[in-house]
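User: C-alpha cells in, sequence out, please.
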C-alpha cells in the first residue's frame, strides 16, 4: 500500500521492482521470524512446517528468517527436528537434503507452561529478544485456545 509521502509513480516503481517476488523477500534485508504456536501438534507437523519448507526451498523466505515453534509439550531438539521434518520428502536428492539441513537449522523450539500466562509469553519474548528479530505468527491451535496479547517484541503480530 502507498504511504502518504509516496507518489503514484514511486509506488508503481516499487511494484515493478518487487513483481514476482514473495512479499516476504521483497522487503530487502528485514529479518523475519515466524512463530508457530501449537508447534507440537498434528497440523503443524503435517502442514505448517512442510509449507514453510516449501517457501524456503523455493527461495521465498529471506535467508535470515527464523522459525520458532512454541507449545507446552517438552520436546528435545532431536524430537522437534523430527516433528519438523517428518512429513517433508526430499528423497535421495543430495542438494535438497542439504537444503533441508539448512532449513532445520533455522527452526528452534520454546516450551511454555500454559498459553495463557503472561510469564510464558514473557519467556517467549525474552527468547525472541535474545535470538531473533521481527515476528509473524502462525497459529495451528484449537479454536478454543486464543493466547493473550503478545508482549513486546512480538508487537505487530497479525
Ligand atoms: N491436523 C490437521 O491436519 C488439521 C487440518 C485442518 C485443521 N486442523 C485444525 O487445526 C487445529 C489443531 O489441530 P491439530 O490436529 O494440530 O491438533 P493437535 O495435534 O491436538 O495439536 C494441537 C496443538 O495445539 C496445542 N494446544 C494448545 N492448547 C491445547 C488444548 N487445550 N488442547 C489440545 N492442544 C492444545 C498443542 O500443543 P501442546 O499440548 O504441546 O501445548 C498442539 O501443539 C484444530 O483446530 C484442528 O481442527 C487440523
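Assistant: Sequence out:
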Amino acid at each position: 500500500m502507498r504511504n502518504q509521502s509516496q507518489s503514484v509513480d514511486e509506488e508503481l516503481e516499487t511494484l515493478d521492482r518487487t513483481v514476482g517476488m514473495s512479499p516476504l523477500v521483497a522487503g530487502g534485508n528485514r529479518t523475519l521470524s515466524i512463530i508457530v504456536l501449537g508447534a507440537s501438534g498434528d497440523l503443524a507437523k503435517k502442514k505448517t512446517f512442510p509449507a514453510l519448507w516449501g517457501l524456503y526451498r523455493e527461495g521465498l523466505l529471506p535467508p535470515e528468517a527464523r522459525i520458532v515453534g512454541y507449545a507446552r509439550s517438552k520436546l528435545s531438539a532431536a524430537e522437534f527436528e523430527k516433528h519438523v521434518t517428518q512429513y517433508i520428502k526430499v528423497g535421495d536428492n543430495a542438494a535438497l537434503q542439504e537444503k533441508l539441513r539448512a532449513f532445520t537449522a533455522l527452526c528452534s523450539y520454546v516450551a511454555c507452561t500454559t498459553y495463557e500466562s503472561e510469564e510464558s509469553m514473557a519467556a517467549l519474548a525474552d527468547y525472541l529478544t535474545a535470538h531473533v528479530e521481527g515476528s509473524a505468527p502462525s497459529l495451528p491451535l484449537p479454536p478454543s485456545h486464543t493466547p493473550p496479547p503478545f508482549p513486546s517484541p512480538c508487537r505487530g503480530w497479525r
